[in-house]
Write a structure and sequence with these properties.
Blueprint (H helix, E strand, L loop, with lengths): L9 E2 L1 H8 L3 H9 L5 E3 L5 E4 H10 L7 H6 L8 E5 L3 H11 L7 E5 L2 H10 L4 E4 L8 H9 L8 E6 L3 H6 L8 E4 L4 H14 L19
Parallel strand pairs: 4-5, 4-6, 6-7, 7-8
Antiparallel strand pairs: 1-3, 2-3
Helix pairs in contact: 1-2
Length: 220
Amino acid sequence: MEPMEIKKTFCTTREAAVLLGVSVGTVQLWVETGVLSAWKTVGGHRRVMRDSVDRLLHKKPESTPAPDALAAATPENRPLSILVVDDDANLLRLYQEHMSRWPMTPSVAFASSAITGLLMIGANCPDLLVTDLRMPDMDGFYMLRVLRNTPELANTTVTVVTGLDTDEIERHGGLPAGIEILTKPVQFTRLQAIAADIVKKKQFNVPPKTAAPAQGLSAP
């Protein structure tokens, strides 16, 4: 009789990074901020609950730009990368329509939730992040607080596009410093000016390197 295979209910931060396609540092940050569930061994090593990794895997987009390819490119030979996070599908289509006509021909990706946005950012830091604040499951406020502590995003320009007024934003705890707030309806002329300024100043980001595959590790 063949021995019964027992699936581990936890994994190391390195194993979680391989499965999610992000850096170990990103996994550690997600653990600290509660995006991933984890516990510590007596020796102080983190063990990430596998079910929380699986939940993120189910939300992971089918395809994202290859981090290694973008990391090897220089600001002079790659397009501006933009990530738009909003749960309104019609609004995402409007973003796509407008941004596809911008003269700098940016590479634009879209996420319909903050959790998916975090995954995409973890795999490939955008040059410009445009996000809504009021979204289900995880709102934009929490996502931006998580990203504030991500060193890889030091050069990412963040712009919030929201229907909330200043008082409502303050009631939610406000936003990290340095984030420009645009009100809806979307001010595409201003967004284009922000994108053009990033290109002019060559404030491009360098995507983090994903962890190397661990020996004998495979997704279920």
